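Thread: "does anyone have the structure for this chain?"

Original post by V.I.:
We have the sequence but no experimental structure in hand. Need at least a predicted one for the grant figures.
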Amino acid sequence: MSGLAEAFHAHAAALLPEAGTVLLLAVSGGADSMALWDLLVRADRWHLALFHLDHGLREDAPRDAEVIRAQAAAYATSGLLPTRLIVER
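Reply from O.Q.:
Generated one for you, tokens below.
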């Protein structure tokens, strides 16, 4: 694990609810929310419920949902699966 990931995990453990709590994470499909999702998955302290909303404002917005579903499938293949994945349009 990198020093940055270790620092994130230490701060997250201090700032977020206790281990085992369900966290609702809004994921846009952008780099920042995808990175946060990955760090929280790898911390393996919380149950994650993910939410993505396609507001229909951008023509390429449906691609974001595809990216999120693909990442959830990749985590599932690795044995790392969010509690729930909710994608709305």
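V.I.: this helps a lot. The CA atoms of residues 29 and 64 lie 5 Å apart.
O.Q.: and The radius of gyration is 13 Å.
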